[in-house]
Amino acid sequence: MNVLVTGGAGYIGSLTTLCLMQAGLNPVLLDNFSNSQPQVLDCLEQLAGRRPVCVTGDVRDLALLEQTLVEHSIDAVIHFAGLKAVGESVRQPLAYYDNNVQGSLVLLEAMRRQGVRTLVFSSSATVYAEASEMPLREDARLGPSSPYGRSKWMVEQMLQDLARSEPGWSLTALRYFNPVGAHPSGTIGEDPRGVPNNLMPYIAQVAVGRREALHVFGNDYPTPDGTGVRDYIHVQDLARGHLLACQQGHGRDGFHVYNLGRGQGLSVLEMLKAFELACGRELPFVIEPRRSGDLAAYWADASRAEDELGWKAELGVDAMCADSWRWQASHPMGYST
Ligand code: NAD
Ligand code: UFG
């Protein structure tokens, strides 16, 4: 199976590429490297024993996409390419609608023209409305609160409409909860530009001495220890979810949506403790006011993915922290070290 992986040089895309290669599929990456480094291709070659084909370009380039689909006889697409910072999306909404919505529209048009009908799309738990009942099931009320979340919701609606328009489309949206961790070898991991927005890369940079202390955003939430609770999922489990969605989606008509999470909430302080165990020392933290837009607590009901895809998260918080630490300790400055 030849699979086009847009955004395949990124954090989740690169580890999914490796998972596809190890399962005997042929991924073809397409990335504009706006948030990734070409060195990841060397790491993939080292781990998989062969170098994946990589097209440097933008998902909004219709001619390039059509050419790539034809030249590489693509059977299915996994679409990761896009922007992902919630706060930035509030300040630059048009960049988010352009990259995430327009990018998906162009990709779908290229697929329609070239007769490629299977797509797996990176959606997010952020599409759910606030104050939904926990755990979140796929049929919970939707209503994202940021332009980033709305861009994901818009694409899901496009996929749903497209699947209804004619038979033959197999379109799957995977709603990730909080992906963390790295490849267990420590060779591939998350390498955010600038100050990390997300909890785990921030903790990892404190552990390696790049940042002084973790800023804990709020300790007055209605949660057991007052800090925010999320459903963290190991990126290796997430990668396997894409493999299964891609294999099982191929030839299965319609629009399908799945939560990918562990079904267990962990607080900021619990994550910090787990990381301290992994790196072997106490890590400094300071309590700050709540971060605007954050919810107190949410976690997934991932039983639909288990029932229909045969997918279940296998790796726990210890592996998430140990692998993340292995990556950070061996690459203190990310891919540039
Ligand atoms: P990432 O930034 O590491 O990877 C995205 C990749 O897409 C990068 O390599 C970037 O260079 C590329 N890219 C961006 N815009 C592009 C464009 N217009 N054309 C071609 N390439 C482009 O992010 P990630 O964490 O691997 O996330 C992958 C996907 O999963 C994104 O769509 C993101 O919104 C979604 N997602 C991520 C999280 C998370 O917490 N990491 C959670 C939910 C959903
Ligand atoms: N947090 C801190 N300090 C930090 C960073 C985060 O205390 O420096 C806290 C947050 O307040 C929150 C928790 O850690 O309680 C997790 O925050 P993240 O920024 O790591 O993740 P979010 O839950 O805010 O959002 C992430 C991705 C989104 C995605 C969402 C899906 O950033 O893109 O998960 O659940 F949509």
Structure description:
The protein has 337 residues and is α/β, with parallel strands linked by helices. It is 40% helix and 17% strand. It is built from eleven helices and 13 strands. It has helices at 11-22, 39-48, 62-71, 86-91, 93-114, 147-165, 199-207, 235-249, 268-279, 303-309, 317-330; strands at 2-6, 26-31, 53-56, 76-79, 118-124, 170-176, 178-180, 214-217, 229-230, 232-234, 254-260, 266-267, 285-288. It has a seven-stranded parallel sheet, sandwiched between helices. It has a two-stranded parallel ribbon with strand order 7-10. The chain has a two-stranded parallel sheet with strand order 8-13. It starts with a strand and ends in a 7-residue tail after the last helix. The chain binds nicotinamide-adenine-dinucleotide and uridine-5'-diphosphate-4-deoxy-4-fluoro-alpha-D-galactose (UFG). Residues 6-7, 9-13, 31-36, 58-60, 80-82, 84, 99, 103, 122, 124, 176, 179 line the site of nicotinamide-adenine-dinucleotide (NAD). The site of uridine-5'-diphosphate-4-deoxy-4-fluoro-alpha-D-galactose (UFG) has 19 residues, from helix 7 and strand 8.
